Amino acid sequence: MEVHTVTADAETFTANVYLAVADDRATLVDAGAMPGVVEAIREHTDELDAVVLTHQHGDHVAELDAVLDAFDADCYAYADHPRRTHELADGDTITIGDEVCEVVYTPGHADDHVSLVGDASLFSGDVVVHDDGAFEYGSFGRTDRPGQSREQLIESIQRLLERMPDGVEHMYSGHGGVFHGDVRDVVATALERAEKREPKYSE
């Protein structure tokens, strides 16, 4: 399976959008907010089987209509959306590229947030990221806006660690860089920082 960050050259603020391509399946994780994302996807594939949403913040879904209008793809999401074709629930499994991933409900940053945990890969959305300007090697989604909860986020990161196999070595998060290595250690580091309950960003 090849995983491409199709928003890598974005000049506007967007979440990372990942295209996982296997021999007979292409899956997009989030749709982002980058104009031209459809063209970026077409650089790697002419067909898209599914779009899977980690959550529905604008930087993750602004281009969803454009993607679904361009490709005959199913849309998987936890919360209701006019374009959703399949509802996700905690404990479901879904194939990303050629990797079967478990859906783990991970609220805190967003009420509808899910992460996707496979044997080798973690698509973590915004609940945990490798680096985002606040921390290097293990950061976490912000929880200082209305409807967000640090306590829920902490519980979500704990749940991720409980459900993640030891061999996960690829981390694809909603912001920051892709990480290859000991993903459990990165997630555990993010948990330690979140548990301090200090503001993520200084005033």
TrEMBL record:
Keyword vocabulary terms for this entry: Hydrolase, Metal-binding, Zinc
CDD domains: metallo-hydrolase-like_MBL-fold (cd06262)
Span of domain Metallo-beta-lactamase: 14-175
Required cofactor names: Zn(2+)
Pfam families named among the record's database cross-references: Lactamase_B (PF00753)
UniProt keyword Thylakoid present: no
MF annotations from Gene Ontology: hydrolase activity; metal ion binding
Protein known as: MBL fold metallo-hydrolase
Organism: Halapricum salinum
Source taxonomy: Archaea, Methanobacteriati, Methanobacteriota, Stenosarchaea group, Halobacteria
